[in-house]
Amino acid sequence: DARVTQTPRHKVTEMGQEVTMRCQPILGHNTVFWYRQTMMQGLELLAYFRNRAPLDDSGMPKDRFSAEMPDATLATLKIQPSEPRDSAVYFCASGLVGTSLLDTQYFGPGTRLTVL
Amino acid sequence: GENVEQHPSTLSVQEGDSAVIKCTYSDSASNYFPWYKQELGKGPQLIIDIRSNVGEKKDQRIAVTLNKTAKHFSLHITETQPEDSAVYFCAASIRGRGANNLFFGTGTRLTVIP
Q1: How near does any CA of chain B get to the CA of A12, in Å?
Q2: What is the mean pLDDT of residues B85-92?
Q3: Of B88 and A105, the one with more pLDDT
């Protein structure tokens, strides 16, 4: 049963610290998305990649957030320095664009981040 | 860009009754409409989707209808069960623009009362 995996599942850190979240997309998927979910804002798209190339990161605060995809099996989202307002659940999703599965995204379990 | 509105924000129904969640979208070019179910502590899971070339799709107790003229689509759950309790999100997407990103509604918290 193929699924998106994310690590860590929970992260508590202090303000100013660097946070790195990792995502392993479903094998063979060519598109990876990063979302942030909060009670106030709901699901927000931060960035997404197609074939490992960043397509859109306009939803991401550029000064402290960065997203990369060093290889087809790993996507990372980094926050440096972290702030309390970054506390949220961060989801990774993957999909396969170019087939009948176009636009369908499969979500991982999320990383719950708490910045004190 | 696309704007998706979802109603109601909370919904309580008795077990066995039906539940209906409605969404509207703004961009007439949107042509893919998935619904996700999110249980506590988990990521959203795709439960059903519909493309703009059909008006209705059904999968056991869940069905989705689409009215392209009015730009709204709805999720129908029949014979609700306690395990249907979750937050449901609708979304819309525009194929062919190279983006394929989803625009999500704000979610509906469904509670099925045993």
Answers
A1: 16
A2: 95
A3: B88
